[in-house]
UniProtKB/TrEMBL annotation:
Domain Rhamnogalacturonase A/B/Epimerase-like pectate lyase: 21-249
Record has Disulfide bond as a keyword: yes
Claim: Metal-binding is one of the keywords in the record: no
InterPro entries in the record: PbH1 (IPR006626), Pectin_lyas_fold (IPR012334), Pectin_lyase_fold/virulence (IPR011050), RHGA/B-epi-like_pectate_lyase (IPR024535)
Gene3D superfamilies: Single-stranded right-handed beta-helix, Pectin lyase-like
Source superkingdom: Bacteria
Species name: Pseudoalteromonas ruthenica
Pfam families with a match to the protein in the record: Pect-lyase_RHGA_epim (PF12708)
Key words, A-Z: Disulfide bond, Signal
Protein name (record): Rhamnogalacturonase A/B/Epimerase-like pectate lyase domain-containing protein
Signal peptide start-end: 1-17
Amino acid sequence: MTRFIYFLLLFSFVAHAENVHVGDFGATADDQQDDSVAIQSALDSLAKGDTLIFAEGTYDVCTTLVLQHSEQITLRSFTQSKLKKCANFSGEYLLYVKPAQDFTLSSLHFQGLHNGHQVSTWGKQGVYIASATNVKIIGNEFSNFGDAALRVTSGPEADYFTTNTREVMIASNRFSQCRQVTTTQAQTNSYVGGVNDIVVLDNEFESCTLKLSTRAPAQTANVLFNTFRDINKTAFEVSYYSDLWVAHNRFMNIDGFVMNLYPNSQAPRQIPWDNIMFEKNFIHNTRFGLRLNSLGREQLRPVHALTVRDNRFEQVHFAEETNWRDIVRTYSYSDHASFDGVHISGNEYELAPDSDFLYIDPLSRNVYIDNNTALPSQPGS
């Protein structure tokens, strides 16, 4: 399936005005010399519709590469050439893109200097894309970033409490040894959104968390057919995204929550969010299941339409935890409301000793629970 998706999406952006090669500007792969100036010159030369091509090999990047005010630009290789941070890298991001319209990143490998899965190293980041429309990030690899391997978000200059990045496709990539892939705008005191209309499709998250979070209203996020594995914290965090569809994913060997849903404490006020669906996912060998936190303190409006259905939970073991021993658990910090319209149905689950499948907080309303089936416990589980 991965190859089919990759070539189908690739076909949609191969026709561009001109191919530009970084080698023509003096960038030489595998020579262990700083290629930053040459690659930046190539980026500065791009015109509307151009494709910048990286020949096979590794390029050493010692300062942040910047692409500004781009339109219909593609950065790609045909062999997943590597852009690697130098040991003495100066800057925060390896690649900084803002603003952008119709931007594509394909078949490149971005490598940092820090294993963010072992130790979070804030500010040591990979690719930043902001204030963008129609973004495709397809068939790349991102590894060894202490913070965000990929941050796609609204720019901090956006109007207060708005979202100015939309139509983002992140497909058939591999993320490893990083702290996160995120939509959060991390600038202090910046109250803007993440991304409207984002699709996260057929990626591999190995030792790297996916975090869809926003500080302003954001709508439509589809997280489909991904694999999350070998993560020593929560696999998937989500905050304040309405119309969220999480389906057909595999979560394996997760030493934290499978999905942690929560209101973003950095938002300046409550953001209405509704329509959250988690269905047809496979979960195996995880510390916890789903932590579904609806509201913060003093928030009044309930979250409408929460659905958890047709999932299979195997070996959710809870380790030494004594409090969170429910595979699916809702709760609210508010004294006034929680979820309104909860559907939990068709799930299969194994129970660890002294655990339960489901806890619904007393403030949730209109709850429907049906046809959830306990599986025989496996030896050693």
